[in-house]
Design a protein that fits this description.
globular, 6 helices, single chain, alpha/beta, 180 residues, two-stranded parallel sheet
Length: 180
């Protein structure tokens, strides 16, 4: 299975961008890899051909995904810090070999999205199964279904005061942590 549900996100974008293109921008931070990655890149190109505000930022120094270099730290942190929302469409669990317990992302398997959210004081959107620490719940939205994700994104796109409140909560929550 795929680690992230990019197809669902891109399908939502296909639905949203005709009406919300001026309010939304999707940045995929890092080059999608393997066969599924090539499908994602094709979908992004299709969106861009329809003037949808979707980009892939990779380590090649441009917004094309033709290079496997790591994203420079300053670019990575700048893109995250300038974001209104970090969306990590992780699949909830990852099957292991027989006899080995499944990994549950955010519980038995860590992810950097929490640190990125705290370090840069950026609100977060993750699957409902993802365990979210109580200290950051006031700047975190969770979704269970595609419709949940769509509703949350629409609501945030249409409500600047709600986005501002989430950002302020993220700033307040970030002050509770020492990530050094």
């Amino acid at each position: 299975t795929s680690v992230r549900e990019y197809k669902m996100v891109l399908d939502i974008c296909k639905e949203l961008f005709p009406d919300y293109n001026s309010k939304l921008e999707l940045i995929i931070l890092g080059r999608p890899v393997n066969q599924k990655g090539f499908q994602i890149i094709r979908q992004v190109r299709e969106h861009r051909s329809n003037n949808h505000n979707i980009h892939i930022v990779d380590g090649s120094g441009n917004n094309k995904s033709n290079d496997g270099d790591f994203i420079p730290d300053d670019t990575f942190h700048r893109v995250i810090a300038e974001s209104d929302l970090l969306l990590n469409p992780l699949t909830a669990s990852h099957k292991q070999a027989p006899g080995i317990p499944n990994e549950i992302r955010g519980t038995s398997k860590g992810t950097g999205i929490i640190n990125d959210s705290i370090e840069n004081a950026v609100p977060l959107l993750v699957p409902q199964e993802f365990e979210v620490d109580q200290a950051i719940q006031t700047h975190t939205h969770t979704y269970r279904t595609r419709e949940d994700m769509l509703s949350i994104i629409k609501s945030l796109a249409n409500n600047k005061s709600r986005r501002d409140k989430l950002r302020n909560n993220a700033v307040q929550n970030a002050m509770k942590f020492d990530l050094d």
